[in-house]
Design goal:
- The chain is an alpha/beta fold.
- The protein has one domain: TIM Barrel (Alpha-Beta Barrel).
- 40% of the residues lie in helices and 25% in strands.
- α1 packs parallel to α3.
- It is globular, with a radius of gyration of 16 Å.
Length: 250
């Protein structure tokens, strides 16, 4: 079963989207974050993906009050990240009402520590965000809001985390993120072949219901929907109908 998951990216308390992760190429949307989350819930969403873009760069939870309010009032299960640098950060988000904590930079830099968190809090409470760019023949893993290069690759960390008992993987092709250019289905075939036991959430480039259906038919566990929903390309209800039809045909 494939679950469409709406996304809210926060910067200075506002709903925004970046183009390919570039903080200088930002679109700000005239939606109040809590009201937008409630709208997604009324359209049938059960999960919401929230990113603190300020925190992703600074390592501090700069949009925590907004995130806490969303978790308390929207009627959605929330997975959230941006700014997790240590275990205290994991506990802070769980205490704020988040159901799953999304860990990105530290999952790349300190995999042993994150593997220990999976063991301590359970695989259902941790989402690995291994966002990637294809460079020099490998899927590379930038960190710090995609602004810092790292040596580790996706092919190295996927088997490690699968062996550590991880379940949830959010994987974004950064070159597709915010572009409305279509998802990179080859990336998700690679992930499935490398670590078939991970539940993959596909992210980046989704522009149409055909894209959503194609990812569902490919067998991903979730499809993150950002700009496409914000720009009104289709509705959350539309996405749910398409994935239900795709799942029924498999």
């Amino acid at each position: 079963m494939t679950l469409p998951i709406p996304a809210i990216d926060l910067r200075d308390g506002k709903v925004v989207r970046l183009f390919q992760g570039d903080y200088e190429q930002q679109t700000t949307f005239a939606f109040e974050p809590e009201a937008l989350a409630r709208r997604y819930a009324s359209d049938g969403a059960t999960w919401l993906h929230v990113v603190d873009l300020d925190g992703a760069r600074s390592g501090r939870f700069e949009n925590l009050p907004t995130l806490t309010a969303i978790a308390a009032s929207a009627g959605l299960a929330v997975q959230a990240g941006g700014g997790i640098r240590d275990e205290a950060g994991v506990r802070k988000l769980l205490d704020a009402g988040v159901s799953r904590v999304v860990v990105g930079s530290i999952a790349i830099r300190e995999p042993a520590a994150v593997a220990a968190w999976i063991g301590r809090y359970g695989a259902e409470r941790i989402v690995l965000a291994l966002d990637t760019r294809f460079r020099d023949g490998q899927w590379r893993l930038p960190s710090a809001g995609w602004t810092a290069d790292e040596d580790r690759t996706l092919g190295e960390l996927l088997p490690f985390y699968e062996a550590a008992g991880a379940r949830h993987l959010l994987c974004t092709d950064i070159d597709r993120d915010g572009t409305m250019a279509g998802p990179n289905t080859a990336l998700y075939r690679y992930v499935a072949a490398t670590s078939p036991n991970l539940d993959v959430q596909a992210s980046g480039g989704v522009r149409s219901l055909d894209d959503v259906a194609g990812l569902a038919l490919q067998g991903v566990a979730g499809v993150i929907l950002g700009r496409s929903l914000l720009q009104g390309e289709f509705t959350m209800a539309d996405a749910l109908a398409v994935t239900a039809k795709a799942d029924a045909s498999c």
